[in-house]
Amino acid sequence: MLIPASGMALPIIKSLTDCADYSKTIEPYIPQLAALPSNLYAAASSTDSLQHLYASTNPAVSGFAFSLALFPIFLIVSEVNKNYSQVDRVWSILPTLYNAHFAIWARVNGLPTQKVDNVLAFSVIWTMRLTYNYWRKGGYQVGSEDYRWALIKKQIGQPWFFILNVLFVSSLQSVLLFSVTLPTYILLLTSRLSPTMTLLDTVFARALMALVVVEWFADGSQWNYHAAKLSHQQTAKVPSGYTRAQLDRGFNTTGMWKYSRHPNFAAEQAIWLVLYQWACVDSHSLWNWTVGGVIAYLGVFAGSTPLTERISAGKYPEYRVYQERVGKFVPKLSGKRWDEREMEGMAATKKQ
């Protein structure tokens, strides 16, 4: 049996299974959420008081409170600027901020940090990759906005889009980016009974890193293809590594994109599934309450990917064939596959 750190900031745990029990690890600390604003106001004048409040507040509660506090900021900025990509701009940053919060909180309270440190290491690399990719595509330029928001706003109208902004875009998305890191909280708890990295822990940590590498190569392939396509459109010359038919097609079918229509999306979803499974294995549970964050994260892709594909199918004639022959996320194991020579022959026939 372990007595909780910092008074009642963490539960008394008797087994690893306890670490995944919502009634023991979250429910007793919900009152801290309601008391946090007044406690924060009372402690604001003293650094020592703020440090004590931070250390004595359950880290899942304080992380959740921060995600809620961001909501009015996102809402006001998005409505004033009529730009609804405010959460998009910090999408690559917030999960790592929350993982860092868990690691810092554990250190402040003298808890073992090997597991949360490994999560943080992966998370920092994940942030660097996604932030860089978002930046090079112009995501941080003034006025830049995800084109899908404009399409949705056009379809449902401004009044309904404002409601969507209040209920989802500026609010639930912020909470989602916190919720997806909650398995790290369970790893923090299990570290009190099992402080060192086991072989299985190492496998999970390396798997997370490997998935980021997959994302990096998928991003690079997509970036290189569209750079080559733009060069071809401007100069009429075919850059090395591509055929004219591939560039005229308009969408990438090289590298990983030959086997998956969205290899980067597939790896992104797998990352948070792996982190969740790590928490399940470490807490000796088949499933735990943090699955809600993972399901919600997958739900974002389930909702946005069809819209993206509908736009692509409307722009590129061959995209529907691509949809039939290439799996959305996971490569197809049966049926007709994508054949570059065949598709180039079909394109040449159509031109004739």
Characteristic key phrases:
352 residues; mainly alpha; disordered N terminus; UstE-like; transmembrane; Steroid 5-alpha reductase C-terminal domain-containing protein
Class based on secondary structure composition and strand pairing: mainly alpha
For the largest beta-sheet, the strand count, sense and barrel status come to: none
> Which parts are unreliable, with pLDDT below 50 for 5 consecutive residues or more?
1-5
Number of strands: 0
* Head-to-tail CA distance between termini: 78 Å
> Please, how many helices?
17
Could you tell me the radius of gyration in angstroms?
Answer: 23 Å
Question: Share of helix among residues?
Answer: 55-70%
Please state the average pLDDT score: 94
Oligomer: single chain
How would you describe the shape? Answer: globular
Strand content: under 5%
Please trace the helix and strand order, writing H or E for each element.
Answer: HHHHHHHHHHHHHHHHH
Protein described:
The chain is globular. It is mainly alpha-helical. The protein contains 17 helices and no strands. Residues 1-5 have low confidence and may be disordered. The protein is 68% helix and 0% strand. Helix 8 crosses helix 9 and helix 10 crosses helix 15 (291-315). This is Steroid 5-alpha reductase C-terminal domain-containing protein. Pfam families: DUF1295.
Provide a compact summary of the structure.
One of its GO terms (cellular component) is membrane. The protein has 352 residues and is mainly alpha-helical.
